[in-house]
Amino acid sequence: MSIQRRRFVHAVGVGTLSGLAGCTGSFGNQDRNQNGSQHQNQGSSGNGSVGNGELVLATTTSTYDTGLLDELHPPFEETFGVTIKTLSKGTGASIRTAEDGDADVILVHARGAEDKFLQAGHGVNRRDVMFNDFVIVGAQNDPAGIGGTQSATEAFSTIADRQATFLSRGDDSGTNKKELAIWKEASVQPSGKWYREVGKGMGDTLTQSSQSNAYTLADRGTFLSMKSDIDLTIHVQGPLKDGPVILKNPYGVIPVNPAKHDNVNYRAAMAYAGYLTSPKAQTIIDNYTANGSQLFFPNALSEQPNFGQYVPQGYSAQQAQSLSREDKEYLSWVETRVPASY
Q1: In terms of Cα–Cα distance, which of 285, 263, 271 is closest to 84?
Q2: With b meaning 16 or more CB within 10 Å and e meaning fewer, what string describes 28-54?
Q3: SS3 337
């Protein structure tokens, strides 16, 4: 069903946008909202409504399922007088929603799909926000015997050879895109009764994997936030724990291009991108934990500018000849931002 959209009627000045996008002002502390994305803060104590007062965010299920958005959104809503409407539907669906003009901004985690979104002109001013990694999880008894495997592709190949039950998100999410990339790298076309597509979010997929004694690929954040409620363990670690770099998981925020869709609340989208990459929001991300574990690591702020975050990978001929640059950058984040004791 098409989402009812608003018309963008206020002219936007460059100076105004610059101030919003670089917002690093003081944000009041808020108690965590227990109702998830339905938080309706009208910003009565804020500095006035930005744009038309509503921001539509399309985002991956991991940012919602972990509860991170419940911590991040109240300070923004109060300060800018904006109500955030969160559409939690996975990266692929979030990008399609934005392409249709039914979202103002996206927060997703599939750089290849993000690049296509940018190259098609649907998004502008991409920024790095945070990262974690993917892990391969399954039942404690590890029926395929992949525990301790140092290669994600080897683990997937072993699961396929032994036809151990594997649950796929099957929803074109960032996690699903990563899973399919690993199968391709392993030269395996998964099929048969052992391979099941769930078609649901990460939380539901983990719950069903626990109930089915099945393996699945999960982002570490959602797994850790649900660890006490499911009977699964990590069998193959990602790069946060010295695992293969193919399991990296960076997140980016991208405002929708108002030249493509003049109905988007571009002022609020730019304010949101500025907020997520501000010291305040980056500190919230850095301090957010579940079950005693940090779920995400902020990476928006750096003394050395990273111009690659703004444009598609391979934008220049030099970048196109060095595709490993992205992996090296991710590993540098792990080395400099993840505590050795993690």
Answers
A1: 271
A2: eebeebeeebebebebeebeebbbbbe
A3: helix
The contacts of residue 247 (CB under 8 Å, 6+ apart) are 133, 134, 135, 152, 178, 236, 237, 238, 239
Instruction: Tell me how many degrees the CA angle 336-26-47 measures, rounded to the nearest 5.
Output: 140
Q: What is the pTM of this model?
A: 0.79
d(CA 245, CA 327): 7
What confidence category does residue 331 fall into, taking pLDDT thresholds of 50, 70 and 90?
confident
Residue 315 identity: Y
Record the tokens describing residue 14, joined without a space: 């460059």
Q: Which amino acid is at 267?
A: R
**5 or 218: whose pLDDT is higher?**
218
**Both structure tokens of 25:** 């002002």
- Band (pLDDT 50/70/90 cuts) for residue 34 is very low
Token code pair at residue 17:
């946008």
- Residue linked to tokens 């998981």: 249
What is the Cα–Cα distance from 144 to 244, expressed in whole angstroms? Answer: 19
Beta pairing, strands 248-255 & 105-108: antiparallel
Using a 10 angstrom Cβ sphere, with 0-12 exposed, 13-18 middle and 19 or more buried, the burial of residue 111 is buried
